[in-house]
Amino acid sequence: MKKILLPFLLLLVLILGACSEKENESQSAEAEKDTETITYESETGPVEVPKEPKRIIALTNGPNVLALEGNIVGIDEWTNANPLFEDKLKDAEIVTEDNLEKVLELEPDLIIAGSHMKNIDKLSEIAPTVVYTWGKLDYLDQQVEIGKLLNKEKEATDWVADFQERTAAAGEKIRAKIGEDATVSVIESGNKEFYVFGDNYARGTEILYQGMGLKMPAKVEELALESGVYTFSSEVLPDFAGDYVIFSKNPDVDNSFTETELWKNIPAVKNGQVFEINTKASTYSDPITLETLLTYFEESFLGN
After folding, report:
1. Do 279 and 249 touch, CB atoms closer than 8 A?
2. What are phi and psi for residue 210, nearest 5 degrees?
3. The domain at 37-151 falls in which architecture?
4. For 58, which DSSP code?
5. Are 85 and 62 in contact (CB under 8 A)?
6. pLDDT in tens, 91-134
7. DSSP class of residue 280?
8. Residue 286: which of 66, 103, 130, 75 has the closest Cα?
9. Contact indicator for 94, 109 with CB cutoff of 8 Å
10. Residue 232: closest CA among 185, 279, 280
């Protein structure tokens, strides 16, 4: 019996040894994959970053990262408060550039920061840190840059091309319906003031003016196009209202002005041509926000 069992035991040992060797090879390959890096050409110079980052702290540009399915473990408070990203950030923690202890605790393998932020040198000691200057790139180029950073440039560039095509097509349909000369203004409520926006200040302005080719009122073009935003008081609200108004409603401020005769007598209000968006869900120009607003604008203008 022992003579019969011996070959089988020997065979079993060989099989287990081979399995163990394969498992070790697999673990070694996985570890090597995790440590692979690429050189990202940032605005401050080349930075060695993980080829496939697993734990990202996004002190800025978090929504762009989420759009490319990057795993964020630390996020700024403003992005965290945005209702569009609630589900995607349920496991992320709020962190700031000042709380280096929290940054260290989260064990990031990539940090994304703004050029205006403090402690960038100290952040770089914790993990590879890439810096962006707000407004240096337009909203589409910014997404492509995040794509390069996450080794997902193709996904980013494909989305940009497709989004531009769809936005232009929607703009043609909308202009055909409302008229080439119809004007659209984007107005936001504040505590004691109002804001009107140019063509690159989120709230869907990039879609409406750049992508769709819709017109802004002359006064808005004069005062907000170059600066991006213009602040005014309620008394002159009608002066900034276009034929159509995108009303960025801030739920945290007093919006009782909508019950006043001044507001109700604005032609766009009388004609039912005011489309309301949530300020908290509209202050970024990332793909998630843009796709949501594009759908809303198409439905609102075209009545789909």
Report:
1. yes
2. -80, -50
3. 3-Layer(aba) Sandwich (3.40)
4. E
5. yes
6. 999 999 999 999 999 999 999 999 999 999 999 999 999 999 99
7. G
8. 66
9. no
10. 185
